[in-house]
């Protein structure tokens, strides 16, 4: 199957390329596309050198499967072009996610919404994917009325360059730490809204009129769409924490009926893609999820006096399951279908 | 007023001593008490050297105001002894907090529960103080039915030695970061349940039978006691984050009636000890709260379709308002009373 990758040089793009190397349905090196600035960058695919081409100058004839991770502006331009040329487009930007004609897919949850004929498929927001994966089994088992989410998101969610800026900030803090203080006069690199080193920031994305930041609004609306619950009561407070890779989320689910812990554990364990800590106090951390494929669910607890509530601690590698892996899993499903031609 | 300080060499004890230096009601250097190991340590009070005495060997006659920050075991032994000798004991451990005969005090909220005659007064848990301070004005204005808390707590909450261990862990990570990875094979110092550097841990304190950790149970029960709402529905997920000093909490309050944002802001602004960000997206971070006295409340938001809900982002210096400052503020109130003798 002839594949293309737009945004191949970014953190998510590189991970997509590495994952495509492992896929039997990818015979030839993907067509690697980028902005003008990254054109000429030489990447490696199964040991062969592949050079990035400027997307604006490249032909796309014959491409059947395109993965995009180049931001919303590029997606708005190129996704319709690829789709009109007969290619699937799996888009990791937020540009198409809320388009009513575009499915927003987490394969373990709503693969059935994938269309029959090539077109645009949206890959959800990183935090949303892992929360949706953890909450969907509870929805199926008990119904779902409310979902309250607080995320703790790693620097990698802001991209490879921002993540490297965290290292620079931390390096600058160390002499102060040895003297016993957090170097409060160090202003940070500008890669995040404020200094992230030894700090937490309740701000991810643009400020919206309702008082939320864009990342929070994404979790609210995308969770509703993926779960097929347009009226679901959702709140989100999204925070950036000084972690390298891997997002965590504390989630409080109000179910449609009583959800005893053992039944909740059973429902979660039966769901594909999850690793569930049965032990009462079991949990994973972002450091352990870094580089791993599953969504880890732990700290499964009830709430005193509320048999319908389940509390969860959800962790996943935001670059893999939160972005590149989920997109490639969608591509796997589409590639396995009989060709429509 | 003759004062004593038990646990003077710890992170909180040192901060208590520095705060006592600024208090007019403290005439003479406090009697500094410690365990046998720290006895002999020389501290400074208003430029004068003061030597720590082994608490087990020290006389306590004449002490009128004792501040304790030496852990629960020491408090259980020494608090009754000091109280029986006629001294106030303001205890920062969890040993006496839930004793029905001991008031649990945040001065801005429930100073009225302070007893008339010398005895033990408990200083609440660090996270609880800042959440209670932010939530109490909403309770007064609108009533309070539910309080759901997710904390992001700094290394300093585990003490000065643990905080220094975070610096050691971070130092060990830096070479890996330069190579682009989070040094996943580094196991940490053992100061925290798992490695804290570039990680977050949803585990603070001992594991309890109900699936919570002790820090979470403290927030639940202490919040109920401070607010005088023994039936309040509270949940807490407490996390440790790689921050030097300053705790943050994302709080979702379900009020007793509609709580419009402007009224909530007005109620919060009228409360002593709070600094409230009026701007829709305003907030403080732990780094900014480090070394400061107020409890910072920001990100004041409503919830779509729920006029009775207020979301808050609450930040404070856990060593100051979360521990030493709150204790000294209690002492201020007691010292200002006419002597009962």
Reconstruct the topology from this structure.
2 copies of one chain form a homodimer.
Chain A: E1 3-6, H1 11-21, E2 31-34, E3 42-45, E4 48-51, E5 53-54, E6 65-68, H2 72-84, E7 88-91, H3 107-110, E8 120-122, H4 126-142, E9 144-153, H5 160-178, H6 214-227, E10 233-240, E11 247-255, H7 261-269, E12 274-276, H8 286-289, E13 295-303, E14 306-316, H9 320-335
Parallel strand pairs in A: 1-2, 1-6, 2-5, 6-7, 7-8, 9-10, 12-13
Antiparallel strand pairs in A: 3-4, 9-11, 11-14, 13-14
Helix pairs in contact in A: 1-9, 4-6, 4-7, 4-9
Q: Structural class, from secondary structure content of chain A?
A: alpha/beta
Task: Provide the CATH superfamily of the largest domain in chain A.
Answer: Dihydrodipicolinate Reductase, domain 2
Radius of gyration of chain A in whole Å, from Cα? 20 Å
Q: Work out the count of structural domains of chain A.
A: 2
Sheet of most strands of chain A: 6 strands, parallel
Gross geometry of chain A: globular
- How would you write the strand order of the largest sheet of chain A? 5-2-1-6-7-8
Q: Largest interface, per-chain counts?
A: A-B, 65 and 65 residues
Spans where pLDDT lies below 50 across 5 or more residues of chain A: none
């Amino acid at each position: 199957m002839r594949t293309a990758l737009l945004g191949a040089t970014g953190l998510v793009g590189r991970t997509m390329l590495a994952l495509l190397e492992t896929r039997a349905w990818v015979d030839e090196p993907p067509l690697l596309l980028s902005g003008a600035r990254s054109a000429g960058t030489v990447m490696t695919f199964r040991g062969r050198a592949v050079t990035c081409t400027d997307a604006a100058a490249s032909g796309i004839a014959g491409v059947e499967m395109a993965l995009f991770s180049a931001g919303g502006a590029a997606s708005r331009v190129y996704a319709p072009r690829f789709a009109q040329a007969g290619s699937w487009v799996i888009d990791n930007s937020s540009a198409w996610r809320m388009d009513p004609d575009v499915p927003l897919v987490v394969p373990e949850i709503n693969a059935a919404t994938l269309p029959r004929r090539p077109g645009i498929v949206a890959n959800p927001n990183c935090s949303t994917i892992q929360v949706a994966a953890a909450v969907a089994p509870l929805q199926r088992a008990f119904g779902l009325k409310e979902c309250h989410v607080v995320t703790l998101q790693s620097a990698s969610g802001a991209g490879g360059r921002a993540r490297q800026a965290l290292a620079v900030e931390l390096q600058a803090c160390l002499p102060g730490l040895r003297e016993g203080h957090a170097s409060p006069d160090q202003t940070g690199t500008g890669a995040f809204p404020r200094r992230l080193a030894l700090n937490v920031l309740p701000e991810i994305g643009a400020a919206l009129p309702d008082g939320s930041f864009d990342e929070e609004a994404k979790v609210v609306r995308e969770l509703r769409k993926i779960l097929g619950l347009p009226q679901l009561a959702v709140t989100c407070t999204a925070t950036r924490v000084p972690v390298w890779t891997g997002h965590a989320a504390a989630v409080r689910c109000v179910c449609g009926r009583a959800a005893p812990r053992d039944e909740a554990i059973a429902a979660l364990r039966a769901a594909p893609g999850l690793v569930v800590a049965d032990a009462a106090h079991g949990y994973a951390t972002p450091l352990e999820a870094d580089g791993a494929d599953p969504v880890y669910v732990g700290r499964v607890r009830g709430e005193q006096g509320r048999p319908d509530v389940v509390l969860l601690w959800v962790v996943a590698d935001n670059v893999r399951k939160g972005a590149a892996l989920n997109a490639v899993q969608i591509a796997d499903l589409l590639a396995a279908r009989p060709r429509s031609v």
